[in-house]
Amino acid sequence: MKEAKILIYDGSFNGFLTAVFKTFDERIEVADIQKNSEAQRGLFSDTETVFTQMDKAKRVWNGIQKKSNSAIKNVYFAFLSEHKGIEMLLYRYIRKLFSPTDMMHLNFSDDTVLKIDQLTKSVGREKHRMEAFVRFQLTQDGIYFANIEPDFDVLPLISKHFRSRYADQQWMIYDVKRKYGIFYDLDSVEIVSLDIKEVYANSIHKNDTFSGIEYDYQDLWNNYFKSTNIKSRINRKLHTQHVPKRYWKYLSEKKQAV
Fold it and tell me: What is this structure's pTM?
């Protein structure tokens, strides 16, 4: 009987897919799959570092996609949830997907399938919220900048939306929780890492980082937002349901509430 192994990967999605390829290719008994930044050695398991190989990751991706377009979305979205133990959850899901039983990934009576579906939907909701709630601020050097702090790692999912919507502007969206961002230079979107010590919320206090005209526009939008509200029809419970308070500090129309 083979001893179970703990596979350590670099934390990337392609690194995870490479680890999955290794388990199938070498018929490894897997005890766990862990990010190298969070790796913990098991008392009764060997550890092995898996180096990302794009060709192997692509073979796993293509294999899942051939099985089901919805399954490949589920795998990617669930991975971005950063749910504790997501690697082994996805590993079991993928094994079920490639089992002889057809359409196993649609069997919602299975706990693994159900949990992956729930995580996928949660990440999808956060993606749509970020696309709606991102508020850019014009910096002194002409770049539109926005902070976000999503529950899940949705930056890779929203870049296409903003590249299409703001194709004629340079912009950057920075995830303050994960300390990386995406930058559009009018040609392509790149992942960037910055040493940002200050969170640029839409505070009533002005910051020299942003242009003066930016604050004039924010004041106009804030006044418009207040003037269109009908106090007698305000439903705060419904409002916070659609616009949770955790997003308010980045919304210019919520300046007075920050």
Answer: 0.81
